[in-house]
Amino acid sequence: MSANIDSWQNLREELKNSLQFKLGAVTKTVFKKMNAELVNEGIPVLAEQLPILMVVYFQEQARTQQDIANILQKDKAGIQRSVQTLHKDGFLKIESDIEDKRKNMISLTPSGKFVCERIQSLAIAFNSQIMEHFTEQEWTTFLGYLDRVVKIVDK
Fold this sequence. Notes:
Helix content is 69%, strand content 8%. By secondary structure, it is mainly alpha-helical. It has a three-stranded antiparallel sheet. It starts with a helix and ends with a helix. The model has no long low-confidence stretch (mean pLDDT 90).
């Protein structure tokens, strides 16, 4: 019986210290903090929706939902739900493609552009708050490790 308990405890510790668990915990904590910052600033957008807004913001022309899904490496259905919410909230404009009526072209509304510009300054400030706890060398090394993990997983 004691061996089983030790085995479970070892497995639990191993999982708690796994890459998946640690990255998940960091992501959850960062999104929670960023969502609180957005609410504090009166910006009615969730941190989870920011990548969609930023993809559209940094594009020179309207994008299809499939383009956004491909860029973010997310499923089209999830992107569609977020796009619909952001459209309903007045941040995105959805128009039918002139050449292919089956495609929706996504672009920012003026309030979407305004929110993106406010979000950028928040994101930079948030990043700076984190970076101040690291030396420049530590931060560079940390980012290098994350890039390396992405390359390994993408193989």
